[in-house]
Amino acid sequence: MADGATAVTMAAGVWSGGVHPYAISHKKLGMWLFILSDSLTFSALLVGYSYVRLAAKVWPTPFHFWPSVVTATIMTLVLLSSSLTMVMAVGAAKRGDRKRTTRYLLLTILFGLAFVVLHMNEWRGLIHEGMKLSSNPWGSPLFGATFFSLTGLHMTHVISGVIYLGFVASNFSRGRSTADDVEVSGLYWHFVDLVWMFIFPLVYLLSVKG
Amino acid sequence: MSNQTIGAHEGGSRLYFVVWGVLLGLTSIEVWLAYAQVFSTRGMLTILMALSLVKAALIIAYFMHLRFERATLVFSLIPAVVVIGLLAVFFPDGVRALKLAVH
After folding, report:
1. What is the pLDDT of residues A73-100, one digit of tens each?
2. Structural domain of residue B62, as residue ranges?
3. A50-54, A115-119, A166-170, B53-57: which has the minimum mean pLDDT?
4. pLDDT band at A67 (very low <50, low <70, confident <90, very high)
5. How many independent structural domains does chain B possess?
6. A59 and chain B: CB distance < 8 Å anywhere?
7. B46 contacts chain A (CB < 8 A)
8. Angle between helices A179-199 and A142-173 (to 10 degrees)
């Protein structure tokens, strides 16, 4: 009886409002929900890539350890380091250190741009070797379609992230956005890093030329 | 009070450096596996996915701060993992498609 009564008062407390079940800001919750839906998009693309690879007679493995896999490893290192500078930016923003926050955000943007440049260069090399969306010289024509859509969508996320962080950095340095905004942009940036942690082994490390 | 906060933060950034180091270490194991080619593709896939899941968990827990959020948020995000797992239902069909292919 006593338990039931407590449950009723608790329920009344929750339903009468003024309670924050997640104890985070609405912006942060919104970003988490976006990440949730985006993770499903990327999972679908990764599963699609793996599915057509499984169902292909000859799946291309065009990546030489040197230079392709080494470049992809440097790209991984760059993204992981950009996540580190991002958490530093969030930490500085929470302390109210505007100068440091801006500096760390700019460093993160630089790492992001380095990733894009390396990736574009790799794409250029593959296209030069004859890889297209619909065909390639090594095997299943689906390799080009799945490779370019998967890494292309990821690169789009990095480019949008660089622009997003640019806005946040410029606004925060002028006191127009809060530490919470920096943290929310950090969530997005780490998610882009996280997705690469699956693309790197599935696409590159499992396709090393034997 | 402010000293305490700064101290706590410095501990925090050391933690981030440690997490970054572990992530780099796991990445170098993955790259070494690709270089040495000691396992079959299936073995490689299993090990690489296990390592990547650990890396993803570290990023979510520490960089994305989820470890320090309320459990309600964690519980709200778990269904996504289940849904992603459900996508694996297609894989047996991928092998079947290969067997049905015209040779």
Report:
1. 999 999 999 999 999 999 999 999 999 9
2. 2-100
3. A50-54
4. confident
5. 1
6. no
7. no
8. 160
| Positions of chain B with pLDDT lower than 50, given as ranges | 1-11
Tokens of residue A77, six digits: 């290192």
Q: From chain A, pick out residues whose CB is under 8 angstroms from the CB of B88.
A: 47
Count Cβ atoms below 10 Å from residue B36 Cβ, excluding itself: 8
Is B9 near chain A, with CB under 8 Å? yes
Alpha-carbon gap: B20 to the closest alpha carbon of chain A (Å): 7
pTM comes to 0.89
Report percent pLDDT > 90 for chain B: 49
Q: What CATH number has the domain spanning A24-207?
A: 1.20.120.80
Nearest to A197 among B9, B34, B52 (CB): B52
Using a CB–CB cutoff of 8 Å, tell me whether B34 touches chain A. yes
Report the residue of B31, B32, B74 to disrupt the A interface, i.e. the one with the largest count of A CBs within 10 Å: B31
pLDDT in tens, A133-179: 998 999 899 999 999 999 999 999 999 999 999 999 999 999 999 99
Contacts of A94 in chain B (CB under 8 A): 9
